[in-house]
Write a structure and sequence with these properties.
- There is one protein chain.
- By secondary structure, this protein is mainly beta.
- It contains one helix and nine strands.
- It is about 10% helix and about 45% strand.
- The strands form two sheets. Strands 2, 4, 5, 7, 8 and 9 form a six-stranded mixed β-sheet that branches. The protein has a three-stranded antiparallel β-sheet with strand order 1-3-6, with no helix packed on it.
- The radius of gyration is 19 Å and the shape is extended.
- The protein starts with a helix and ends with a strand.
- The model has no long low-confidence stretch (mean pLDDT about 85).
């Protein structure tokens, strides 16, 4: 009888509708990107036509406890502009990630880790 329960569970998984695509997907910075402090960079994304509320672009630093806020890079960015030009502030060197938030997004969207260093 155990095989019947597994078969039913698999059938339920197959008949479940696929998860909707995320409303916003970051396209840059890409994984392994290196940024220097006090340089301007482009944060880019693709988004659904349904997003209208402005986004904030933040930088988070990796710590032993996880990801911690490091800097606010841009505020109130129209998501339909598909990105923002940001200035990397003077920060300690190390691993960071870009985080895009908006009240319309179910969850914030984060980039792959980038490395920030001094020029």
């Amino acid at each position: 009888m155990h095989w019947m329960a597994r078969t039913k569970a698999r059938l339920c998984d197959l008949t479940r509708p696929p998860a909707p695509p995320p409303d916003l997907c970051l396209s840059s910075p890409a994984a392994g990107t290196h940024w220097h402090c006090v340089e301007r960079h482009r944060v880019s994304w693709n988004c659904a036509d349904t997003l209208w509320h402005p986004c904030d672009v933040l930088l988070e630093r990796r710590t032993e406890q996880g990801w911690a806020p490091a800097a606010l890079l841009a505020t109130r960015v129209d998501p339909r502009t598909l990105g923002a030009s940001v200035l990397v502030p003077e920060l300690p060197a190390g691993p960071y990630r870009v985080r895009v938030t908006s009240p319309e997004l179910a969850t914030a969207v984060c980039s792959a880790p980038v490395v920030i260093s001094h020029s």
